[in-house]
Automatic annotation (TrEMBL):
Protein name stated in the entry: LLM class flavin-dependent oxidoreductase
SUPFAM superfamilies cross-referenced by the UniProt entry: Bacterial luciferase-like
Matches recorded under Gene3D superfamilies: Luciferase-like domain
Protein species of origin: Virgibacillus tibetensis
Domain Luciferase-like positions: 10-315
CDD domains (UniProt xref): Tetrahydromethanopterin_reductase
Pfam family, one: Bac_luciferase
Oxidoreductase among keywords: yes
PANTHER family, A to Z: BLR5498 PROTEIN (PTHR30137:SF8), LUCIFERASE-LIKE MONOOXYGENASE (PTHR30137)
Amino acid sequence: MSAIKQNGIEVGIYTLADIGPDPFTGKTISTKQRMDEIIEAAKLADEAGLDIFGVGEHHRLDYAVSSPAVVLSAIAHATKRIKLTSTTSVLSTLDPVRLYEDFATLDLISGGRAEILAGRGAFIESFPLFGYSTKDYNELFSEHMDLLLKLNENEIVSWNGKFRSSLRDAEIAPRPVQKQLPIWIGVGGTPESAARAGRLGVGMALAILGGDPMRFKPLVDIYRSAGLEAGHSPDKLNVGVTGHAYLAKTTEEAKDEFYPYYANYWNYVNRQRGMGTKMSRDDFEQVASPRTALFVGSPEQVVEKILHQHELYGHTRFLAQIDIGGVPFHKVEKNIELLATEVVPMLKKAIGQNK
């Protein structure tokens, strides 16, 4: 199954590798099992013909992955054609040279399938861990992104900044198979972040976890306007959407199956952030309603939501996070199957892409 391109979208899945208790049994799988399941999910996605597999970065004991490049390298050997991306790399607290060289290495291992999705992250534990101050949150990201783009363009780099040592005719090795690594910026909801992604001429990945999709359209407009003003060609200004998803044969079945895991997920994520809020079934019904951005339902319902957003944003990529809240692996497998065999063909037909 080939990618939906041109006027359509590429479709894939991603994981943040959260390790949550099963809401029914209270048992939590081991980090080893979680890692094995992530690699197996990537193999299944590749075999099913999905286009992209993403792995996120966290530095907490309740998440399994702190180094996406290492995990994606293992996945590279277990797969043949699927693109491999971070979702996201916490660029504020990563050394850009190390990040670039790791993903250039991944590109060599995978035969040209590596990408970097850089963001600022939802948690701040990496700041004290790597000796940075949250007071420099925005400035760090800007400086590190500036350097990362220079590394991507040049084999030998001279550079001066505030937060790391200067580079003078530094050789940046190895170089990737691709002429340049595709680089995206993850944007949560601020106009400033959207404008920056546009000015830099990199892809913008929107994290849309709920609510009315219309509220994100201004960010897309800001991104494209800033990119065109900066002189970038429209075909470089790609928009991606990432979001939580769960599929079943019918929408009611999907909601019934997913609610315990989704409520469980937000329960422990909110606790991690110092909040004690719990999601009721009524709350869930509201966030999963047909006009919201939560991709829960039958394949037809999920296709309808993706197409509605495609009309608003003209995005070229959709990534679904299907393994949150302790969802057991057999349900993750079923979701990959439904996404690849039902959602993707319906999208192709609706968008008018030739097979």
